[in-house]
């Protein structure tokens, strides 16, 4: 029997709570609800972290965050430790990754294990001529008049002006279209359709990542006024909102986020239809999930004085409880799995499928989620932000099965809390607190898969700016 194709689809920043597949009120995922009739749906799946680089490293290697230690935007992972390199070297797969995610493809080296890399399409420097200046050369905001004055005082005035027009053109919309899920799905389909043997690919799609800009067809719960509010927010919004306390703004734009999830759901419908039409769906292990969710001002259950914003800090359920839908070769019956599951199981599930066995994302003992963000809150948050230290990492959680529920113990510093989780919509804290998760975390050993960084290594200014435009605290 030929080995199955492998397709991992990561719907970046999509949380289970806002998916109608998991009981959300707005009909954000009508296709995935139908697809569930022929797939396996995990009700209690957890991401390994709340940050793209750490979660992807865990999914690609099967190691927990304390084991791989890949936690910074510029962190590097030994490509030999990934399932992708194993598939290519040991099983003869052709591998590819398709993503506009700057964290995965530019600032870190997480695309290095793949033979084919597509993305990002956007020019990080936003410049047409290298000889001139560009708007991305300046930190903070500047008016058009201020930029033109800089152009005329530069060594290449005309080329600098053209760079400014180039910058504005790409920020005006064609860039967003080039980086959309449909563009990368089309590219993946062209690539996979031309392979002669088994292929393994990762699609990381950013339509639901900040900025929240659903197409008009899918903006069913937002509208022009909310879009105007969204556009008035700075990048990243979490820094200003945590300082000024305007959490209502973040809560308001959640309706736009819902439209982004609806847009991705339509993209999944298009992807599966194309695979089905050419006979590939029944020969492919298809895993649809997310690397983390988003926070829209929900209060931390560990420290209620902390509210979570996007995925900048915290270990809230809205950030770690993620979708997980699995379609297996030769299977067409819907299955619902209610036990606790971890995305770190992905490499083992792939190996099981190749061996003709039915692997599961469920765990026998416990799942964990951990983030070091924010590592330096005193540096990245303004002095006006009250008690910046309370946002600092690490934040840690351990999940165990507790009858029909999941029992979560989470800590931050010396404070710990137990939370019982019914499903993606319902959870509640218990009165009893546990002071430490040390027994679990002390059991982890470093796997030696993080590559040492060179002295003084830092990201290019253009990449730094692009990360900030995507809402990352830098």
Secondary-structure content class: alpha/beta
Rg (CA only): 22 Å
Principal-axes shape call = globular
Please state roughly what percent of the residues sit in beta strands, choosing from under 5%, 5-15%, 15-25%, 25-35%, 35-45% or over 45%. 15-25%
Report, as a whole number of angstroms, the end-to-end distance: 49 Å
DSSP summary: helix tally = 17
In percent, how helical is the residue content?
A: 25-40%
Main sheet characteristics: 9 strands, mixed
Low-confidence segments, given as residue ranges, are 170-174
What is the number of E strands? 18
Write down the overall mean pLDDT. 90
Mind explaining what this structure looks like?
Strand 14 and strand 15 form a beta hairpin. This protein has 474 residues and is of the alpha/beta class. The chain contains 17 helices and 18 strands. About 1% of the residues have low confidence. The strands form four sheets. Strands 1, 2, 4, 5, 6, 7, 10, 11 and 12 form a nine-stranded mixed beta sheet that branches. Strands 13-14-15-16-17 form a five-stranded antiparallel beta sheet, with no helix packed on it. Strands 3-18 form a two-stranded antiparallel sheet.
